[in-house]
Amino acid sequence: MSQRGFSLLETIVVVAIVGVVAIATAARGPQPPRLRSASLELQSAFAETRALAAANAVANATGATLVVEPLADGRDTRVTVYRGRPIAGAPPLVREEGFASETLPAVVTVADEVPGPFGIFVSSSGFASVALDYAPDAAPAHTFATDPGCPDAGLTISLTAGALHDARHFSCRDARYDADATPPPVRP
Fold first, then answer.
1. 40, 129, 43, 137: which is closest to 82 by C-alpha?
2. Could you report the per-residue pLDDT of 26-78, keeping only the tens digit for each?
């Protein structure tokens, strides 16, 4: 009776296939710590903005604003939560004392735009609108006659830390950013 085994070529092919599968799995694995940290901090800022907007509904206020501003170093981004929204006739924005400005260790952009300040305005009913190139400290303070709007499908918010890049979905209908969810596919 002869014994059969695997040839050297068959063994090499199997090892190569297992290696490719392992590399593909690792590439889709968890985010690197710097990017993961930035994503979670941004998620926390969105949650704070939503909670503040909901609390403001009781006080008949206009909601809350999250401002995202790239820092001069080109590597980090500052996020700040404000009470109110910059709608004409509304009281001016007030920095929320319970939420200190956070510096994220990544560059944050909306829809792959060039990094620049942007604001996300959450109404007391929970809907969000977005304005690119928004800076609340500009003189004179910028206000909108109506909400600037937000696409029904939401937005893709991208974080970049060095050569690492990650994109997450932001839902305008409920002002949610999920650090663990992937963005929906883009439909042509």
1. 137
2. 555 555 677 888 888 888 888 888 888 888 766 656 889 999 999 988 889 99
Instruction: Give the contacts of 6 (CB within 8 A, at least 6 positions apart).
Output: 14
pLDDT digits (tens, 9 = 90+) for 141-166: 678 888 788 888 888 888 888 888 88
Does 6 fall in a domain? no
Q: Is residue 106 part of a domain?
A: yes
Residue 160 lies in a domain: yes
Of 137, 144, 5, 153, which Cα lies nearest the Cα of 88? 144
Q: How many domains does the chain have?
A: 1
Q: Domain range for residue 48?
A: 31-177
Structure tokens at 105: 């260790």
Specify if 68 maps to a domain: yes
